[in-house]
Each structure stands twice: as structure tokens, then as C-alpha cells.
Amino acid sequence: MNSSVAIYPSAQWKQQTGKWAEYLKLAREYGFGEVFSSIHLPELRLADQVEMLEELGGLAGNLGMELTVDIGGGEIRQLLEDQELCARVRSAGIGLLRLDYGFSHKQAGALYHRLGIKGFVINASIYNQREAENVKADLAAIDPSIELRACHNFYPRPETGLDREFFERQNRIFAGLGLPIYACIPGKSHPRPPLRLGLPTLEEHRHMDLERVCVELACSPGIGGVMAADEFFSEIELACISHILKREPLTLRVRLLEGISQEEDQLLFSGPHHFRYDSNRQILRSRTSREVSRIGRKVAPGRTSERQRGMITVDNERYDRYSGEVQIVLEDLGADSRVNCCGQIDGRDLWKLEYYRDGFDYRLAGNGKNGAF
Fold first, then answer.
1. N or C: at which end does the chain have fewer Cβ atoms within 10 angstroms?
2. What is the pLDDT along the chain (373 residues), one digit of tens a residue?
3. Structural domain boundaries enclosing 22
4. Edge-to-edge, what's the strand order for the sheet holding 339-345?
5. Which conformational region is residue 303 in: left (phi greater than 0), alpha (psi within -120 to 50 degrees), or beta?
6. Last residue of some domain: 222, 245, 268?
């Protein structure tokens, strides 16, 4: 899955170029291959935004990062009327232009040829089915080799972000047209002024934990890329996004019960658990533990109490060939003398269990093991 970071024009941009360079280098180290910017801010002169873009394009190019730039109707007209500005934008090495609104097919064609770009990004949040089909057809007609993508808006003002039903409907539209779709992730470390309330695509993501935002977007049908939409995500935030996009194991914090045996300890914490794809709504079955338990390890019975949602269990020797199988309970179940209760997953992590069919394995951490809490 593709990923990008964002740098925006500002009146003080010349004092920030060193910070840009450090940020882009760090983002590149965490696998971010793209940079998003804009020359679409009405409070700044277009010439000033182009000057900033030239500097940013050089930094991105030196790191091998592709540059995508947002532009709207007013700026499109100004750019096409000014040959010098057009040449300067071309020199910035833009890969794609994101067309916000207010453009014609003729203008898009002129931009494509004059700027030497490889394609366009269509606004995924504002077109219905028919309009999206027409926009794609118009842009594709410019050049058979043109690259087209879609990217949702971000929403600085609270209560204006997309709701999930609309988001999923729009994704179906653009996925049906064969376009990869990007969505925006809000940052917590340096939310963009003046509101400083994050730049999410989905309103419900504005104050949500970053890990959950990333997992939800990475597993959303049609989403082929994410953008860290606020500027200057912290290294911890960049690492979190990278971790999710690579489908590295999710951590489940577990409060262990007293009296866990050495055999149970090894089964729980020896490595990530891959839950069987055919698990049901009652329990998740660890395929990893079944492979480990094939060596004939027998688990003594103990703590065979009622099993509440979020309980992690190990089958004991009374279950014969299933002895050693690790499970996570999804629905409250009664006690079973063949099943040992070993610990309770922290309630804050239960949401992660919805994604075992989306390519995620799970690492347990509890009571000082693999990351104490």
C-alpha cells in the first residue's frame, strides 16, 4: 500500500526548509514514498506558493519521493496564463496533480502537457457515479498512458468529515472505475493550524487512536494508499503507520491469571499467533499454537472457569489431540474442564480481533512479557 506525507505552503516556509528535509528523510526511512503539497491556498500569492514548491520538489526528488500537488480552478487559470510560472512548476518535478474543482477537460490537457506530469488525482469525495465516470473518461482521453488515481478530501473543521456509509459508497464508485483510492490520516503531534484539530477523511477518525485509524483504512475495500495529512508526524506516529501498512503483528495486551504453567507461557508468548481463517464468531483458533503443540506437549488442567469475551485460553490434556491449542473467546462461554483460562485481553485492544482475516497476526504482551503494561 502506498503512503505519503504532507508539506503545505505558509508565509514562513523559508524558515522551515531544514525541518522539511529532516522530516522527509525520516518519512523515507519508514517507507513513505510520496509527498503531498498544494498551490491552492487563497491567502497566499500563487507565485509565493510556486517558489515554495520548487524548494520542496528538490528535496523530494533527492530522496526519490514522488510529489503530488493540489490545485483548484483559480490557480489553474493563473498558471496557464503565465508561461514563466508554468515553467517553474514544471521544474519542481511534479508526478501528479490533484484536481480539486473548477477545471475543464481542455485545461487538464494543457496542464498535463505543459507540466510534464504523469497523471492526475481525482477528488474521491465530491463526485457521484455518473460524474466520476465522466471525469475519468475526459482525463483518460488526454493520453492513453496517463496515470489516474483518486484521493479523498481531508476536513479541518470538526463535524464536517465523511461518515462511513458515504466513504464506503465513494470507494465502491472509484474502485469500480479501476482507480486506487487514498484516504487521509490525522496527526496528533503537530495538527495543522489554525484549528489544530487534525485532518481526517472520516469524522470518526478525528480523535481516534492512530493505530486503529490506520488499521481501519488499510483494511477498507478499495483503499490503495494513505496520506499522513497533518504536517510533521512524530517518529512514533510514522512508525505506527509503517507497521500497519506492512501488516506486522498487532499487539494484544493480556492481564494474565495467576498460576500460569511454563507450558502455557511458552504457547502464549513464543511468537505471533496466526488465527485460522475459518474461525467463527465464538472463538479465534491459533493455527500457530496447533503447529507448536504437535510435538506432543501436554498441558495440565487448571483454572477451568467460565470464559468471558476477551479471555485467552489453552486446551488441556483432557482435550486429547487438541491439547495446547490457544484460543481467544469472542462470545461469553461456559466453563469447560478441558479448557484452561489463562488471561484477559485488555478491553482497549478487543477491536483488533476483527481484522484476523485481513492479513494480521497477533503478538501477546502481558505482565512484563513482550512489552509490559
1. C
2. 999 999 999 999 999 999 999 999 999 999 999 999 999 988 899 999 999 999 999 999 999 999 999 999 889 999 999 999 999 999 999 999 999 888 999 999 999 999 999 999 999 999 999 999 999 999 999 999 999 999 999 999 999 999 999 999 999 999 999 999 999 999 999 999 999 999 999 999 999 999 999 999 999 999 999 999 999 999 999 999 999 999 999 999 999 999 999 999 999 998 899 999 999 999 999 998 877 666 557 899 999 999 999 999 999 999 998 999 999 999 999 999 999 999 999 999 999 999 999 999 999 998 655 444 4
3. 2-245
4. 283-285, 326-329, 311-315, 339-345, 250-256, 362-365
5. left
6. 245
Beta bridge partners of 341: 313
In whole angstroms, how far apart are CA 369 and each of 255, 267, 282, 324? Answer: 11, 13, 27, 19
Q: Which residues contact 272 (CB under 8 A, 6 or more apart)?
A: 249, 288, 361, 362, 363
Distance between CA atoms of residues 329 and 195, nearest Å: 42
350 phi, psi to nearest 5 deg? -65, -30
Q: Are residues 99 and 225 in the same domain?
A: yes
- The residue out of 210, 226, 245 marking a domain boundary is 245
Single pTM value for the model: 0.93
Closest CA to 100 of 121, 128, 77: 121
Residues 67 and 214 in one domain: yes
Ramachandran area for residue 336 (φ above 0: left; ψ -120 to 50: alpha; else beta):
beta
Letter string b/e over residues 153-181, b meaning 16 or more CB atoms within 10 A of that residue's CB: bbbbeeeebbeeeebeebbebbbebebbb
Please give the angle made by the CA atoms of 180, 37 and 90, to the nearest 5 degrees. 95
